[in-house]
Amino acid sequence: LDVQAFIEELRVTHDATIVLTTHDLAEAERLCGRITILNDARVVAEATPDGLKAMVAAETGRPATLEDVFMRYTGRSLDDDIDEEDAENDE
Prior knowledge:
There is one protein chain. The chain is of the alpha+beta class. It is built from five helices and two strands. Helix 3 crosses helix 4.
């Protein structure tokens, strides 16, 4: 939470670009002006949080969340990623 507060403070007080890497979509939506979704080391979508949700909503015909965006452009849920990481760590 301290890091998130620090990032928010930097955004308000400085004209700085901050690169944040996260799987926490709520954090990304709260802290990021633009989000880039990567899949297999390739950019598959990039826009503002609202822009990403609007793109998926236009395709599906229903309101979208960032979780919907992630699923749409990667074909995976965040739980799938966590399960894969856990399996790799168990090896």
